[in-house]
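Build the 3D complex.
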Amino acid sequence: MSSPQITLQTVTGVDVELTIAGPGSRSYAFIIDWHIRLLLALQWMLVGHLIYFGGLKMTPDPRSGYFLWVWLPTLLIYFFYHPILEIAMRGRTPGKRLAGVRVVTREGDIPGAGALLLRNVFRLLDSLPLCYLVGLITVVLTEHHVRIGDMAAGTLLVMDHDSSASSFASTAAAKSGLTPQAADLIQELLDRWPALDEQNRATIARTLLARVEPQISAEELARLKTSELRDRLIAKLGQP
Amino acid sequence: MTENGGLQAWATSRIAAWSDLGSILDALERKRDHTVAETLRAIELYRALGRDLSFVRRTLPASRMTRALAHSYARLHAVIYRKPHNLRQGLRSLFRDEIPQVVRELRGHIQFVALVFALSAAAGWWLINTYPELIGLVASEQMINGVESGKLWTEDILNIVPSSVLSVSILANNIAVSIFAFVVGVFFGLGTFYIIAMNGFMLGAIFAFTHQHGMAGELMKFVVAHGMVELSVICVAGAAGMMLGESLIRPTHATRRESFRHAANKTSKVLLLCALLLVVCGFIEGYISPDPDFPMVNRLIVGFGWWIVMVGALSGRLFGREA
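Done.
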């Protein structure tokens, strides 16, 4: 099933197409963020505790300073992680960045602080009764995979895979006589190289090299090891 | 020239323009006050990217290059159409014009919520006055035992918790209650109705219980400095939640979702002011209310004074709005 898209018409006549992030990408981003904020909060708590007490010991009745310097910042880190980072990172958080998603308005713009705060205020409702069940149900059931906070703030979570650097680099290969389509295929293969098994890598690489370097004989190609095939493909793209 | 040759030549001619696109977009996104030259360059880049994207969509559909250009184009679109930003002016307009406007629209809802709160408080008072044994429904055993032995739970609270800790925990709790009263309005207003009614009921019941033991005056002394604004603010947040629910029952826009979004966007501004008012209430409740040496007259002055400031802030007059 392909991800839903929204198309925004622009004054230039060239539409902006945004791919909506599904429940999987949303959950993945959230889980990364949840771990980061939990670790940050715990880290502050531990460091604060060590500084306050000068070790891991603890008096039975700590003074207010302990609450204000250790507990309060810990809670602030945990509860304000999302709103503060989303505002500072213009609709992204470290988890969203790693999951390749970002928050935008329904018009495709970067949301303002008000909209981002509002979508976070509704976390109180989306997180009910536990494990974001309300939010997860609305994400699964709604057309644009949004939780109640997004509906209230008029925001969407869209895919934000920034592969422009490698894609434009592969275009540079056009200088070396490669067609953009062939450069595209080679770049795709190199990106997926670690995920493919040895035999598949070699087969696809030989097929591609045979196409872009017709002067190499089939025997010579068959003799090349997987690592050599990869080096040849990289050299073909002209990448360092 | 073959079609592929043409494509190659075109791509080669565009490489220079695309080479540092990522860093240009990062810089444009990061900055909020662009110069005229930067703006013109961004618009020119937007047009150029649009042309390139249009071309590759036809010639190389579903390719990485198309995806990369589409991604860059979408990012630039977001930057160009981002609303102008002026924090100082934005805050001034928010507190002086926008919030008072919303409060005026909420007037009917505020009256309704205040009535629900008052009726619930009366119901709580009546119930506990008639059936005192039911106090266990709203008060903890510790509270009941304390009051029955002639001691209010607010006495000596500063010996247990310091004012600073008390203030922060109270203001955090009050803000959470206000936000909750607002967001549960999404259940067609019923969630807000329940929260407001429960809070009113508990207040009435507790006052009735302390009255039976001759301590209502003591409780009033504790509550008066912070309670006026605290309860008013919870009613305002409840009214915002009611408007949220009403937007789903009687949509003001083409769809319920659009109506909900519009209502949430509008009413949430009031919530920001409510939170700020509750911060001060928290400090009053932490430092002044539990202090037995703080005289009643001064408590009344603080309570009324802060309430007048609240009315001024909600009406915008505090921020220079004309009547």
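Chain A touches chain B through 56 residues (CB under 8 Å).
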